[in-house]
Amino acid sequence: MDNTTPIQDIRSVVHQALTDVPDCLAAAVVDTQMGILLAHATAVNLADELMDMMAMALARQLRGHAVLGIERALSNTRYRDDQHSNHFFEELIFFSRNNLHLIQRLASDEDLFFVTVCPNTVPIGMVLIKTHQARDKLNHALTSSSGDRPR
User: How would DSSP label each residue in 14-39?
Assistant: First the structure.
């Protein structure tokens, strides 16, 4: 990640996640402020329109009244963490009928999330280890840039 732009680095990490994360079906970086995909890669054929719809849905959920209300309520409890993000939720795991969906907030920008989808038969510990490694690379790509948000 030497002479590349932050968006090129992000795309590279997202594509590498398909190989590094066990049985990864899809990986993406979603900007929840804008409701758009900054980068995505899939091991299965998914229409770009479907990926865009999922990005918008994620943005609506994570920036919606329910989630923000829970975070506000928790910020007034002993669970508050003054040293980190204003957001209580940093990682979310959802299980659909066949897949595990892991959504991780990037520390370098609280509006950006790294999303991975794997079959629900993969060991969750390995998915967490490999996605944490990829998330660290994404954070590095964003913090080593000149401070401009990739768009």
Answer: HHHHHHHSTT--EEEEEETTTTEEEE
